[in-house]
Design goal:
By secondary structure, this protein is α+β, with helices and mostly antiparallel strands. The chain contains eight helices and 25 strands. It has three domains: 42 residues; 142 residues, no CATH class; 173 residues, no CATH class.
Length: 416
């Protein structure tokens, strides 16, 4: 009879010896950038193993929320432990967009900042361009130099093109200031009163409250465009005079906008956003109700969205209704709007949905000097399929952020 086989002695193993391929699988399943950073910080072997996985692209992490004081929080309400966007509260103001912050200093000087890496990119010619826009304003003067920036957009990520452009919509929407990020050329371009701007395929588009769309090509250098007087927006979709920003009960009754089924005499506020999505230019129409004689910002309640795609194959172009976002999800806000592939964001992002942030209040100073409206009260997730709205965050997280008395915007961290 053969002798029984001897079992090999079990070799003690350590978590430090976790194979690189398993580390890669774990990283793929972590939706939070903060969790990915914690994994890399466990020990040197894990940090080395995670570094070896960098040739395999990770899904984009879930977005964060940027607070007005410059701090960042993840969607579960936990603070992000990195340098805040701002270090000296009232010496700076900023607009968060994508994975950067557009920072305006006390003297009006502008820069781009990555709060994760600490990289700061000065834009020395942009402040004079903004000042030129203020000189042409009928309502504002140079004293508004720190408050005049409504929205900032980038033509492409900083690491993908030699010299991307940053465009800033200026108060009143009658001007946009554009600066090259590295060559530092900057120009001021007049336009018809715009409510939002977006880049697509090297072109800058501007949207009006009447849903008109204008475009300007910025493929040549800004200095060349200025010298050839080629700085002019061209209208590609005409304004529709029937489209308004505010509808009174009489107006919405005449236009058969029978949204209010409660019988109350509500007014309607319509916010319009412009964003690129998988090579398409989308306009998002957001319907909000508020009681008559109420001040905007106190009782606004979002109840519906309509999405349209710009069809520029005809002259003039037109808006075509979009019934579904497919596998995309839209994140909408006054300062930052972005389309993401929902399936690539591990955990939590639903496709064919619109994630919307409470609109920026008309008087932001009330955040610091008086009673403030609920900063998250009108935030939520709108499902394009069943037309229902669900809370943006769990109730406990909503309550925690509400106590901060600050308005929030989207921030999309880039994995290092």
């Amino acid at each position: 009879m053969a002798a029984p086989m001897k079992m090999a002695a079990a070799t003690p193993s350590s978590w430090e010896e976790l194979p690189e391929d398993l580390l890669g699988l774990v990283l793929l399943r972590l939706p939070s950038l903060a969790d990915r950073v914690r994994l890399r910080a466990v020990c040197r072997p894990w940090r080395a193993g995670a570094r070896a996985q960098r040739h395999k692209p990770l899904p984009p992490p879930l977005p964060w929320l940027a607070l007005r004081d410059g701090s960042l929080v993840v969607l579960d309400g936990a603070p992000v432990r990195c340098a805040p966007i701002l270090r000296h509260g009232f010496d700076f103001v900023y607009l968060a967009f994508d994975n950067l912050a557009f920072v305006v200093h006390a003297d009006g000087a502008c820069s781009l900042k990555n709060p994760l890496s600490g990289l700061t990119l000065p834009l020395p010619k942009l402040a004079p361009a903004v000042r030129r826009a203020l000189d042409e304003s009928v309502c504002y003067n140079q004293s508004y130099i720190r408050k005049t920036h409504v929205k900032a957009v980038l033509s492409s990520p900083l690491n993908l093109t030699p010299d991307p452009l940053v465009a800033v919509l200026v108060l009143e929407g009658n001007s946009v200031a554009v600066s090259a990020c590295k060559q530092h050329d900057a120009v001021t371009i007049s336009l018809t009163k715009a409510t939002d701007i977006a880049f697509l395929h090297g072109k800058l588009y501007a949207l009006t409250d009447h849903e008109g769309l204008s475009v300007i090509e910025l493929e040549a250098s800004l200095s060349e465009l200025e010298s050839t007087k080629g700085l002019a927006f061209r209208q590609c979709i005409a304004d529709d005079p029937e489209q308004q920003k505010i509808y009174t009960p009489c107006q919405w009754w005449q236009q058969q906008l029978y949204f209010d089924r409660t019988g109350t005499e509500s007014c309607y506020l319509v916010m319009r956003y412009l964003t690129e999505s998988s090579g398409r230019l989308l306009m998002v129409r957001r319907w909000m109700s508020f009681p008559q004689n109420a001040r905007l910002g106190d009782h606004d309640k979002t109840f519906r969205f309509d999405v349209f795609e710009a069809d520029l194959t005809t002259i003039p172009g037109e808006w075509t209704k979009v019934e579904s976002l497919g596998d995309q999800a839209l994140f909408i806000g006054s300062e930052c709007s972005k389309s993401v592939l929902a399936g690539q964001c591990t955990g939590g992002v639903q496709e064919d949905c619109i994630y919307f942030m409470h609109r920026v209040f008309d008087n932001p100073s009330k955040e610091f000097f008086g009673p403030c409206v609920n900063p998250l009260g009108d935030s939520g997730v709108y499902n394009m399929r069943d037309r229902k709205i669900s809370p943006l965050l769990p109730e406990a997280v909503m309550g925690e952020l509400q106590r901060k008395r600050q308005f929030l915007t989207w921030f999309f961290p880039a994995d290092a």
